[in-house]
Amino acid sequence: MSEMEGGLFFNMESLLNKDYRGVNIAVYSLATAGLALAIHKVRPVSKFSKASKIPDHFIKQHEPLRGVYVGVQHSPVRVLVNHKAPIYIPLWHSSKAPLPVKLWGVDIVSTNAVNWLDCVAKGQKVTLKPITCDKDELVSTVLLHLPQPKTKSEETLDIGQKLIELGFAKAVLPQGIKKNSMESKLGPVLLNAENTAKSRRNGIWSDKLPPIPSYVAYWRKGSTLSKELIVLSSRKILEILIFILKATFVGVKKISLKPFKSNPKPVQAT
Fold it and tell me: In this entry, which stretches build a coiled coil (predicted)?
């Protein structure tokens, strides 16, 4: 090691030994600043009841916000979500109103949408993916999480997509959607849902479009029945194959173990 390097390390060691309080203060200051930055970014105790309170970086990064569906606001129709902060503070959070959410690319045109939401989504968990703010309104997608008790799984539905598919809403996409953005991926999905509703004459389209030709209706019913029969037949065939395999396994097991079974010795009478 050269004399210059030795002197440099010696000076650094001497400085740390002499001014250790200053070093500790600097380290604690950096740690505190990092913690404050992380809290500002994550907002672990912030419950949002207004779109204006949501940080800009949440919207730009489409940060998921979790909560519970509580109802619908009328005139205009907005989905009301009780946002759940990562860290729950009972008295403070319970006093805040739910967050109104405007569904992106969706125009609700039927009162059946409200009835459907109240029946299906009331009290269920939802996830918001903010897209933008429009006149102090949060514009977002709303994913509904429905528990499936039979399979012990969870079904996730996009509320806007489902309402359009049922014919309770229309797809109204804004102009100037950027390529490779979240909106460019959602737009085609909503348009396909509307095409499905039109082809099936669901909801509002049953009155706005001419009725489906009878041969098309019969063909659709026949294809649906055929699919159901195929599914049922496949299940029955699978059950039969499983039964045959089990019976074969039991038979082979009995035959293979038969030579190893000892025959009972005859009892001699005296």
Answer: none
